[in-house]
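User: Predict the full complex structure for these chains.
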Amino acid sequence: MSTRPIAVEVDGVTKRFRLRHTHSLKESLVWTVQGRERHNEFTALDDINLTVPQGQTMALLGRNGSGKSTLLKLMAGVMAPDEGRVRLRGRVAGLLEVGAGLHPDLTGRENVFLNASILGMTEADIRARYDDIVDFADIGPFLDTQVRFYSSGMFLRLAFAVAVHTEPDVFLVDEILAVGDEPFRRRCLERIERLSAEGRTLVVVSHDLPLVERLCNRGVVLQQGSVIHDGDVSEAVAHLKAPA
Amino acid sequence: MTVLQPEAALTVQGWGGGLLEVVRRRFLLSLLVRKELRVRYRASVLGLGWSYVKPAVQFLVYLVGMGLILQQRAIGNYPVYLFGGLVVVTTFSEAVGNASRSVVANADLVKKIYLPRELFPVASICVAVVHLAPQVVVLLAGSLLSGWRPDPVGMAALVAGLALVLLLALGLGLLLGAVNVLFRDVENVVDLVLMVLIWVSPVLYPWQRVAAVFGEGSIWLAIYQLNPLTVAVELVHRGTWASGTNAGATPPGLAGQTVAAFGMTVVLIAVGQLVFRRLSGRFAQEL
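Assistant: Here is the predicted structure of the two-chain assembly.
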Protein backbone atom coordinates (compact mmCIF):
# COMPACT_ATOMS: atom_id res chain seq x y z
CA MET A 1 0.00 0.00 0.00
CA SER A 2 2.76 2.38 0.91
CA THR A 3 6.30 2.42 2.14
CA ARG A 4 5.45 4.36 5.25
CA PRO A 5 6.69 2.79 8.47
CA ILE A 6 4.27 0.69 10.44
CA ALA A 7 2.72 2.41 13.44
CA VAL A 8 0.65 -0.46 14.78
CA GLU A 9 1.29 -4.13 14.16
CA VAL A 10 -1.18 -6.76 15.33
CA ASP A 11 0.41 -10.13 14.80
CA GLY A 12 -1.65 -13.29 15.18
CA VAL A 13 -3.50 -12.00 18.21
CA THR A 14 -5.96 -14.18 20.06
CA LYS A 15 -7.71 -13.11 23.23
CA ARG A 16 -9.88 -15.40 25.30
CA PHE A 17 -11.87 -14.52 28.32
CA ARG A 18 -12.51 -16.99 31.01
CA LEU A 19 -15.95 -16.45 32.36
CA ARG A 20 -15.75 -17.51 35.94
CA HIS A 21 -19.06 -18.16 37.54
CA THR A 22 -17.85 -18.71 41.04
CA HIS A 23 -15.35 -17.02 43.26
CA SER A 24 -15.94 -18.33 46.74
CA LEU A 25 -14.86 -21.64 48.16
CA LYS A 26 -18.40 -22.59 49.16
CA GLU A 27 -19.77 -21.97 45.68
CA SER A 28 -16.91 -23.90 44.08
CA LEU A 29 -17.62 -26.90 46.29
CA VAL A 30 -21.34 -26.84 45.61
CA TRP A 31 -20.81 -26.47 41.88
CA THR A 32 -18.25 -29.28 41.79
CA VAL A 33 -20.60 -31.60 43.65
CA GLN A 34 -23.38 -30.69 41.25
CA GLY A 35 -21.03 -31.34 38.35
CA ARG A 36 -21.57 -27.94 36.83
CA GLU A 37 -18.88 -26.30 34.75
CA ARG A 38 -17.17 -23.69 36.90
CA HIS A 39 -15.95 -21.55 34.03
CA ASN A 40 -16.20 -21.46 30.31
CA GLU A 41 -14.06 -19.77 27.74
CA PHE A 42 -15.07 -17.19 25.28
CA THR A 43 -12.87 -16.18 22.38
CA ALA A 44 -13.11 -12.44 21.95
CA LEU A 45 -10.47 -12.17 19.23
CA ASP A 46 -9.39 -15.02 17.02
CA ASP A 47 -6.02 -14.80 15.24
CA ILE A 48 -6.19 -11.17 14.15
CA ASN A 49 -3.51 -9.81 11.84
CA LEU A 50 -3.42 -6.12 11.01
CA THR A 51 -0.82 -3.52 10.24
CA VAL A 52 -1.51 0.16 10.34
CA PRO A 53 0.99 2.36 8.52
CA GLN A 54 1.95 5.61 10.14
CA GLY A 55 -0.46 8.44 9.38
CA GLN A 56 -3.37 6.18 8.51
CA THR A 57 -6.79 6.70 10.01
CA MET A 58 -8.46 3.39 10.62
CA ALA A 59 -11.93 2.61 11.88
CA LEU A 60 -12.74 -0.58 13.73
CA LEU A 61 -16.35 -1.41 13.04
CA GLY A 62 -18.70 -4.18 13.99
CA ARG A 63 -21.70 -5.03 16.06
CA ASN A 64 -21.73 -5.04 19.83
CA GLY A 65 -19.53 -7.80 21.17
CA SER A 66 -17.58 -8.24 17.96
CA GLY A 67 -14.29 -7.60 19.76
CA LYS A 68 -13.41 -4.13 18.53
CA SER A 69 -13.07 -2.54 21.96
CA THR A 70 -11.01 -5.50 23.14
CA LEU A 71 -8.68 -5.04 20.19
CA LEU A 72 -8.32 -1.37 21.04
CA LYS A 73 -7.54 -2.25 24.65
CA LEU A 74 -4.84 -4.63 23.50
CA MET A 75 -3.36 -1.88 21.36
CA ALA A 76 -3.40 0.49 24.30
CA GLY A 77 -1.60 -2.04 26.47
CA VAL A 78 -4.40 -2.20 29.01
CA MET A 79 -4.68 -5.95 28.45
CA ALA A 80 -2.23 -8.50 27.15
CA PRO A 81 -3.14 -10.95 24.36
CA ASP A 82 -3.17 -14.70 25.05
CA GLU A 83 -1.41 -15.43 21.77
CA GLY A 84 0.48 -13.27 19.31
CA ARG A 85 1.62 -9.77 20.02
CA VAL A 86 0.70 -6.16 19.47
CA ARG A 87 3.45 -3.68 18.86
CA LEU A 88 3.31 0.07 18.39
CA ARG A 89 5.75 2.77 17.47
CA GLY A 90 6.04 6.01 19.36
CA ARG A 91 3.85 7.51 22.05
CA VAL A 92 0.38 6.12 22.37
CA ALA A 93 -2.63 7.85 23.86
CA GLY A 94 -5.62 5.65 24.45
CA LEU A 95 -8.95 7.28 25.08
CA LEU A 96 -10.90 4.19 25.94
CA GLU A 97 -13.46 6.05 27.91
CA VAL A 98 -14.09 9.73 28.38
CA GLY A 99 -12.53 11.01 31.54
CA ALA A 100 -11.09 7.68 32.61
CA GLY A 101 -8.14 9.47 34.15
CA LEU A 102 -10.13 12.23 35.81
CA HIS A 103 -10.55 12.00 39.54
CA PRO A 104 -13.71 13.57 40.97
CA ASP A 105 -12.02 14.79 44.15
CA LEU A 106 -9.32 16.75 42.38
CA THR A 107 -9.79 20.20 40.90
CA GLY A 108 -9.79 20.77 37.16
CA ARG A 109 -6.27 22.13 37.33
CA GLU A 110 -4.94 19.13 39.25
CA ASN A 111 -6.72 16.78 36.89
CA VAL A 112 -5.10 18.38 33.85
CA PHE A 113 -1.69 17.60 35.31
CA LEU A 114 -2.60 14.11 36.47
CA ASN A 115 -4.36 13.07 33.30
CA ALA A 116 -1.75 14.54 30.96
CA SER A 117 0.97 12.87 32.95
CA ILE A 118 -0.81 9.51 32.79
CA LEU A 119 -1.03 9.94 29.03
CA GLY A 120 2.73 10.24 28.94
CA MET A 121 3.50 13.96 28.91
CA THR A 122 6.44 15.30 30.87
CA GLU A 123 6.06 18.07 33.42
CA ALA A 124 7.65 20.62 31.09
CA ASP A 125 5.32 19.59 28.23
CA ILE A 126 2.28 19.99 30.42
CA ARG A 127 3.32 23.43 31.63
CA ALA A 128 3.96 24.49 28.03
CA ARG A 129 0.55 23.27 26.82
CA TYR A 130 -1.40 24.13 29.94
CA ASP A 131 -2.96 27.34 28.62
CA ASP A 132 -3.96 25.70 25.34
CA ILE A 133 -5.63 22.87 27.19
CA VAL A 134 -7.58 25.23 29.39
CA ASP A 135 -8.62 27.35 26.42
CA PHE A 136 -9.80 24.30 24.53
CA ALA A 137 -11.76 22.96 27.48
CA ASP A 138 -13.33 26.38 28.00
CA ILE A 139 -14.26 25.81 31.64
CA GLY A 140 -12.87 29.17 32.81
CA PRO A 141 -13.95 29.89 36.39
CA PHE A 142 -14.37 26.23 37.33
CA LEU A 143 -10.71 25.40 36.98
CA ASP A 144 -10.13 25.37 40.72
CA THR A 145 -13.35 23.56 41.53
CA GLN A 146 -13.44 19.85 42.21
CA VAL A 147 -14.39 17.94 39.11
CA ARG A 148 -17.26 16.25 40.97
CA PHE A 149 -19.19 19.51 40.72
CA TYR A 150 -18.77 19.80 36.96
CA SER A 151 -21.64 19.33 34.59
CA SER A 152 -21.24 16.29 32.37
CA GLY A 153 -20.43 18.56 29.43
CA MET A 154 -17.66 20.33 31.29
CA PHE A 155 -16.25 17.03 32.47
CA LEU A 156 -16.13 15.80 28.93
CA ARG A 157 -14.56 18.93 27.52
CA LEU A 158 -11.79 18.80 30.10
CA ALA A 159 -11.05 15.15 29.42
CA PHE A 160 -10.98 15.58 25.69
CA ALA A 161 -8.94 18.78 25.85
CA VAL A 162 -6.20 16.99 27.74
CA ALA A 163 -6.24 14.00 25.42
CA VAL A 164 -5.94 15.91 22.16
CA HIS A 165 -3.15 18.06 23.52
CA THR A 166 -0.91 15.16 24.41
CA GLU A 167 -0.05 14.97 20.71
CA PRO A 168 0.45 11.24 20.58
CA ASP A 169 2.01 9.40 17.68
CA VAL A 170 -0.81 6.88 17.84
CA PHE A 171 -4.22 7.97 19.00
CA LEU A 172 -6.71 5.28 20.03
CA VAL A 173 -10.28 6.48 20.48
CA ASP A 174 -13.24 4.43 21.65
CA GLU A 175 -16.66 5.89 21.00
CA ILE A 176 -16.06 9.20 22.64
CA LEU A 177 -17.28 11.57 20.01
CA ALA A 178 -20.84 10.48 20.52
CA VAL A 179 -21.17 13.01 23.29
CA GLY A 180 -20.87 16.75 23.78
CA ASP A 181 -22.74 19.66 22.28
CA GLU A 182 -22.49 20.50 18.60
CA PRO A 183 -19.92 23.33 18.70
CA PHE A 184 -17.61 21.34 20.93
CA ARG A 185 -18.00 18.24 18.83
CA ARG A 186 -17.04 20.24 15.78
CA ARG A 187 -13.93 21.56 17.49
CA CYS A 188 -12.98 18.03 18.54
CA LEU A 189 -13.34 16.76 15.01
CA GLU A 190 -11.26 19.63 13.65
CA ARG A 191 -8.63 18.87 16.22
CA ILE A 192 -8.55 15.19 15.36
CA GLU A 193 -8.36 15.99 11.66
CA ARG A 194 -5.43 18.25 12.38
CA LEU A 195 -3.65 15.50 14.34
CA SER A 196 -4.22 13.21 11.41
CA ALA A 197 -2.98 15.79 8.91
CA GLU A 198 0.20 16.08 10.95
CA GLY A 199 0.90 12.46 10.13
CA ARG A 200 -0.29 10.90 13.36
CA THR A 201 -1.96 7.54 13.33
CA LEU A 202 -5.56 7.23 14.41
CA VAL A 203 -7.56 4.15 15.31
CA VAL A 204 -11.24 4.76 16.06
CA VAL A 205 -13.93 2.47 17.38
CA SER A 206 -17.38 3.83 16.69
CA HIS A 207 -20.93 3.01 15.77
CA ASP A 208 -21.39 6.47 14.30
CA LEU A 209 -21.01 5.57 10.62
CA PRO A 210 -21.23 9.08 9.08
CA LEU A 211 -18.58 10.27 11.51
CA VAL A 212 -16.34 7.33 10.70
CA GLU A 213 -16.68 7.96 6.98
CA ARG A 214 -15.63 11.53 7.50
CA LEU A 215 -12.64 10.83 9.74
CA CYS A 216 -11.19 7.60 8.45
CA ASN A 217 -9.85 6.26 5.20
CA ARG A 218 -9.64 2.60 6.13
CA GLY A 219 -12.38 0.47 7.63
CA VAL A 220 -11.97 -2.89 9.33
CA VAL A 221 -15.11 -4.82 10.15
CA LEU A 222 -15.00 -7.38 12.93
CA GLN A 223 -17.50 -10.12 13.52
CA GLN A 224 -17.27 -12.53 16.43
CA GLY A 225 -13.58 -11.87 16.85
CA SER A 226 -12.51 -12.19 13.21
CA VAL A 227 -11.84 -9.64 10.50
CA ILE A 228 -14.53 -10.01 7.83
CA HIS A 229 -13.75 -6.92 5.83
CA ASP A 230 -10.67 -4.76 5.50
CA GLY A 231 -10.52 -1.98 2.98
CA ASP A 232 -11.83 1.43 2.07
CA VAL A 233 -14.00 2.91 4.77
CA SER A 234 -17.03 3.51 2.56
CA GLU A 235 -17.02 -0.16 1.50
CA ALA A 236 -16.76 -1.18 5.13
CA VAL A 237 -19.68 1.02 6.04
CA ALA A 238 -21.68 -0.37 3.13
CA HIS A 239 -20.77 -3.87 4.25
CA LEU A 240 -22.03 -3.11 7.72
CA LYS A 241 -25.25 -1.53 6.53
CA ALA A 242 -26.05 -4.51 4.32
CA PRO A 243 -28.63 -6.80 5.92
CA ALA A 244 -26.93 -9.67 7.63
CA MET B 1 5.10 19.20 17.30
CA THR B 2 7.39 16.25 17.33
CA VAL B 3 6.17 13.94 14.66
CA LEU B 4 7.44 10.44 15.07
CA GLN B 5 10.94 9.46 14.17
CA PRO B 6 10.78 6.64 11.64
CA GLU B 7 13.66 4.84 13.30
CA ALA B 8 11.78 4.53 16.59
CA ALA B 9 11.33 0.87 17.36
CA LEU B 10 8.09 -1.05 17.45
CA THR B 11 7.47 -1.88 21.06
CA VAL B 12 4.96 -3.91 22.98
CA GLN B 13 2.80 -1.57 25.04
CA GLY B 14 2.23 -2.44 28.65
CA TRP B 15 5.43 -4.40 29.03
CA GLY B 16 7.33 -1.73 30.86
CA GLY B 17 10.43 -1.82 32.96
CA GLY B 18 8.64 -2.47 36.24
CA LEU B 19 10.02 -0.48 39.15
CA LEU B 20 12.57 1.21 36.87
CA GLU B 21 9.67 2.60 34.86
CA VAL B 22 8.31 4.07 38.10
CA VAL B 23 11.61 5.85 38.69
CA ARG B 24 11.45 7.24 35.18
CA ARG B 25 7.94 8.59 35.76
CA ARG B 26 8.60 10.28 39.08
CA PHE B 27 6.42 13.25 38.21
CA LEU B 28 3.39 11.05 37.67
CA LEU B 29 4.21 9.28 40.93
CA SER B 30 4.25 12.58 42.81
CA LEU B 31 0.86 13.49 41.33
CA LEU B 32 -0.58 10.11 42.33
CA VAL B 33 0.71 10.55 45.87
CA ARG B 34 -0.86 13.99 46.04
CA LYS B 35 -4.12 12.54 44.70
CA GLU B 36 -4.04 9.81 47.30
CA LEU B 37 -3.58 12.30 50.13
CA ARG B 38 -6.28 14.56 48.74
CA VAL B 39 -8.75 11.72 48.49
CA ARG B 40 -7.92 10.42 51.94
CA TYR B 41 -8.59 13.75 53.58
CA ARG B 42 -11.42 15.01 51.40
CA ALA B 43 -13.96 17.14 53.20
CA SER B 44 -12.00 16.77 56.42
CA VAL B 45 -11.35 19.75 58.66
CA LEU B 46 -8.28 18.35 60.33
CA GLY B 47 -6.86 16.96 57.08
CA LEU B 48 -3.31 15.74 57.40
CA GLY B 49 -3.62 16.48 61.12
CA TRP B 50 -5.24 13.08 61.49
CA SER B 51 -1.87 11.53 60.82
CA TYR B 52 -0.80 13.03 64.17
CA VAL B 53 -3.97 12.27 66.12
CA LYS B 54 -4.17 8.56 65.35
CA PRO B 55 -0.63 7.61 66.44
CA ALA B 56 -0.95 9.92 69.45
CA VAL B 57 -4.09 8.15 70.68
CA GLN B 58 -2.59 4.73 70.07
CA PHE B 59 0.53 5.78 71.92
CA LEU B 60 -1.43 7.04 74.94
CA VAL B 61 -3.52 3.87 75.12
CA TYR B 62 -0.46 1.65 75.22
CA LEU B 63 1.40 4.00 77.53
CA VAL B 64 -1.38 3.87 80.10
CA GLY B 65 -2.25 0.23 79.53
CA MET B 66 1.19 -1.28 79.33
CA GLY B 67 3.30 1.30 81.14
CA LEU B 68 1.08 2.17 84.10
CA ILE B 69 -1.28 -0.74 84.52
CA LEU B 70 0.90 -3.66 83.44
CA GLN B 71 4.01 -2.04 84.93
CA GLN B 72 6.27 -2.25 81.88
CA ARG B 73 7.93 0.82 83.39
CA ALA B 74 10.77 -1.47 84.29
CA ILE B 75 12.05 -0.50 80.84
CA GLY B 76 13.86 2.80 81.25
CA ASN B 77 12.34 5.67 79.24
CA TYR B 78 9.36 3.49 78.37
CA PRO B 79 7.50 6.21 76.41
CA VAL B 80 10.41 6.60 73.98
CA TYR B 81 10.88 2.83 73.72
CA LEU B 82 7.18 2.36 73.04
CA PHE B 83 6.83 5.18 70.52
CA GLY B 84 9.91 4.09 68.57
CA GLY B 85 8.43 0.63 68.06
CA LEU B 86 4.96 1.99 67.31
CA VAL B 87 6.33 4.25 64.58
CA VAL B 88 7.79 1.21 62.83
CA VAL B 89 4.72 -0.99 63.19
CA THR B 90 2.12 1.64 62.27
CA THR B 91 4.12 2.71 59.22
CA PHE B 92 4.44 -0.89 58.13
CA SER B 93 0.75 -1.58 58.69
CA GLU B 94 -0.35 1.48 56.79
CA ALA B 95 2.03 0.91 53.90
CA VAL B 96 1.27 -2.79 53.47
CA GLY B 97 -2.48 -2.40 54.06
CA ASN B 98 -2.83 0.34 51.46
CA ALA B 99 -0.42 -1.18 48.96
CA SER B 100 -2.40 -4.44 49.07
CA ARG B 101 -5.54 -2.56 48.15
CA SER B 102 -3.90 -0.11 45.75
CA VAL B 103 -4.46 -1.90 42.45
CA VAL B 104 -8.08 -2.75 43.23
CA ALA B 105 -8.72 0.76 44.53
CA ASN B 106 -7.47 2.23 41.25
CA ALA B 107 -9.51 -0.17 39.14
CA ASP B 108 -10.92 2.68 37.04
CA LEU B 109 -7.46 3.66 35.88
CA VAL B 110 -6.16 0.12 35.50
CA LYS B 111 -9.05 -0.88 33.26
CA LYS B 112 -8.94 2.06 30.93
CA ILE B 113 -5.50 3.58 30.62
CA TYR B 114 -2.10 2.06 30.45
CA LEU B 115 0.35 3.30 33.01
CA PRO B 116 3.00 1.29 34.82
CA ARG B 117 0.85 -0.47 37.41
CA GLU B 118 3.73 -0.62 39.86
CA LEU B 119 3.00 3.06 40.41
CA PHE B 120 0.02 2.23 42.64
CA PRO B 121 1.75 0.20 45.36
CA VAL B 122 4.75 2.52 45.21
CA ALA B 123 2.45 5.52 45.68
CA SER B 124 0.96 3.83 48.77
CA ILE B 125 4.42 3.46 50.24
CA CYS B 126 5.14 7.13 49.50
CA VAL B 127 1.94 8.16 51.29
CA ALA B 128 3.10 6.17 54.30
CA VAL B 129 6.39 8.10 54.17
CA VAL B 130 4.47 11.38 54.25
CA HIS B 131 2.73 10.19 57.40
CA LEU B 132 5.96 8.83 58.85
CA ALA B 133 7.91 12.09 58.65
CA PRO B 134 6.10 14.00 61.43
CA GLN B 135 6.18 10.93 63.67
CA VAL B 136 9.95 10.73 63.34
CA VAL B 137 10.20 14.40 64.28
CA VAL B 138 8.08 13.78 67.37
CA LEU B 139 10.14 10.69 68.22
CA LEU B 140 13.41 12.61 67.99
CA ALA B 141 12.03 15.49 70.07
CA GLY B 142 10.79 13.08 72.75
CA SER B 143 14.12 11.28 72.79
CA LEU B 144 16.02 14.52 73.26
CA LEU B 145 13.75 15.51 76.14
CA SER B 146 14.36 12.19 77.86
CA GLY B 147 18.10 12.72 77.82
CA TRP B 148 19.09 10.95 74.61
CA ARG B 149 21.94 12.41 72.59
CA PRO B 150 22.49 11.43 68.95
CA ASP B 151 25.49 9.28 68.13
CA PRO B 152 26.71 8.32 64.62
CA VAL B 153 26.02 4.58 65.03
CA GLY B 154 22.55 5.36 66.38
CA MET B 155 21.73 7.66 63.47
CA ALA B 156 22.84 5.04 60.99
CA ALA B 157 20.72 2.46 62.84
CA LEU B 158 17.66 4.74 62.73
CA VAL B 159 18.01 5.38 59.00
CA ALA B 160 18.60 1.69 58.33
CA GLY B 161 15.59 0.73 60.44
CA LEU B 162 13.22 3.07 58.64
CA ALA B 163 14.59 2.13 55.22
CA LEU B 164 14.14 -1.53 56.10
CA VAL B 165 10.45 -1.08 57.01
CA LEU B 166 9.70 0.79 53.81
CA LEU B 167 11.51 -1.65 51.53
CA LEU B 168 9.89 -4.57 53.27
CA ALA B 169 6.50 -2.94 52.80
CA LEU B 170 7.28 -2.33 49.12
CA GLY B 171 8.12 -5.98 48.49
CA LEU B 172 5.04 -7.25 50.30
CA GLY B 173 2.89 -4.52 48.78
CA LEU B 174 3.81 -5.50 45.22
CA LEU B 175 3.16 -9.16 45.94
CA LEU B 176 -0.09 -8.74 47.84
CA GLY B 177 -1.39 -5.91 45.66
CA ALA B 178 -1.14 -8.16 42.61
CA VAL B 179 -2.61 -11.27 44.24
CA ASN B 180 -5.43 -9.23 45.76
CA VAL B 181 -6.76 -8.54 42.27
CA LEU B 182 -7.45 -12.25 41.81
CA PHE B 183 -8.38 -13.10 45.39
CA ARG B 184 -9.86 -10.31 47.44
CA ASP B 185 -9.38 -12.50 50.49
CA VAL B 186 -5.89 -11.06 50.64
CA GLU B 187 -7.04 -7.77 52.14
CA ASN B 188 -8.78 -9.60 54.97
CA VAL B 189 -5.79 -11.82 55.65
CA VAL B 190 -3.56 -8.76 55.64
CA ASP B 191 -5.79 -7.01 58.18
CA LEU B 192 -5.66 -10.08 60.37
CA VAL B 193 -1.89 -10.35 60.23
CA LEU B 194 -1.44 -6.63 60.86
CA MET B 195 -3.52 -6.99 64.03
CA VAL B 196 -1.10 -9.59 65.39
CA LEU B 197 1.97 -7.75 64.22
CA ILE B 198 2.49 -5.51 67.22
CA TRP B 199 2.93 -8.57 69.45
CA VAL B 200 5.51 -10.40 67.34
CA SER B 201 8.07 -7.60 67.59
CA PRO B 202 9.54 -6.04 70.72
CA VAL B 203 7.30 -2.96 70.66
CA LEU B 204 5.42 -3.21 73.95
CA TYR B 205 7.92 -5.40 75.82
CA PRO B 206 11.71 -5.86 75.65
CA TRP B 207 13.29 -8.71 73.68
CA GLN B 208 14.59 -10.26 76.91
CA ARG B 209 11.03 -11.35 77.75
CA VAL B 210 10.92 -13.48 74.61
CA ALA B 211 14.39 -14.83 75.35
CA ALA B 212 13.17 -15.78 78.83
CA VAL B 213 10.25 -17.73 77.36
CA PHE B 214 12.13 -19.57 74.61
CA GLY B 215 15.53 -19.70 76.28
CA GLU B 216 18.74 -18.07 75.02
CA GLY B 217 20.10 -19.69 71.89
CA SER B 218 16.84 -21.47 71.05
CA ILE B 219 15.72 -21.74 67.46
CA TRP B 220 12.47 -19.92 68.23
CA LEU B 221 14.33 -16.92 69.57
CA ALA B 222 16.50 -16.93 66.44
CA ILE B 223 13.40 -16.97 64.23
CA TYR B 224 11.81 -14.21 66.29
CA GLN B 225 14.92 -12.09 65.95
CA LEU B 226 15.31 -12.74 62.23
CA ASN B 227 11.87 -11.28 61.55
CA PRO B 228 12.85 -8.21 59.52
CA LEU B 229 10.26 -6.15 61.36
CA THR B 230 11.82 -7.08 64.70
CA VAL B 231 15.18 -6.03 63.29
CA ALA B 232 13.71 -2.70 62.17
CA VAL B 233 12.19 -2.09 65.60
CA GLU B 234 15.47 -2.86 67.35
CA LEU B 235 17.36 -0.62 64.95
CA VAL B 236 15.03 2.27 65.73
CA HIS B 237 15.39 1.55 69.46
CA ARG B 238 19.15 1.63 69.04
CA GLY B 239 18.85 4.89 67.16
CA THR B 240 16.57 6.88 69.44
CA TRP B 241 16.16 5.24 72.82
CA ALA B 242 18.63 6.59 75.34
CA SER B 243 18.97 3.29 77.18
CA GLY B 244 19.72 1.58 73.86
CA THR B 245 23.42 2.27 74.38
CA ASN B 246 23.41 0.45 77.73
CA ALA B 247 24.87 -3.04 77.84
CA GLY B 248 22.28 -5.71 77.05
CA ALA B 249 19.58 -3.30 75.91
CA THR B 250 20.31 -3.99 72.26
CA PRO B 251 20.14 -7.68 71.36
CA PRO B 252 23.54 -9.20 70.57
CA GLY B 253 24.15 -9.90 66.91
CA LEU B 254 21.93 -7.07 65.68
CA ALA B 255 24.44 -6.15 62.98
CA GLY B 256 24.30 -9.64 61.49
CA GLN B 257 20.52 -9.72 61.76
CA THR B 258 20.37 -6.38 59.94
CA VAL B 259 22.35 -7.75 57.01
CA ALA B 260 20.14 -10.85 56.91
CA ALA B 261 16.98 -8.72 57.06
CA PHE B 262 18.10 -6.52 54.17
CA GLY B 263 18.98 -9.66 52.22
CA MET B 264 15.49 -11.08 52.78
CA THR B 265 13.94 -7.79 51.83
CA VAL B 266 15.80 -7.61 48.54
CA VAL B 267 14.67 -11.14 47.71
CA LEU B 268 11.11 -10.22 48.67
CA ILE B 269 11.14 -7.17 46.38
CA ALA B 270 12.46 -9.30 43.52
CA VAL B 271 9.75 -11.90 44.07
CA GLY B 272 7.09 -9.20 44.46
CA GLN B 273 8.16 -7.54 41.22
CA LEU B 274 8.18 -10.87 39.39
CA VAL B 275 4.71 -11.88 40.57
CA PHE B 276 3.35 -8.39 39.94
CA ARG B 277 4.66 -8.48 36.40
CA ARG B 278 3.32 -11.92 35.73
CA LEU B 279 -0.13 -10.99 36.96
CA SER B 280 -0.36 -7.41 35.69
CA GLY B 281 -1.42 -8.58 32.23
CA ARG B 282 -4.58 -9.96 33.82
CA PHE B 283 -5.45 -6.97 35.98
CA ALA B 284 -7.68 -5.24 33.47
CA GLN B 285 -9.91 -8.23 32.85
CA GLU B 286 -10.13 -9.39 36.45
CA LEU B 287 -11.19 -6.08 37.95
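The mean pLDDT of chain A is 83.
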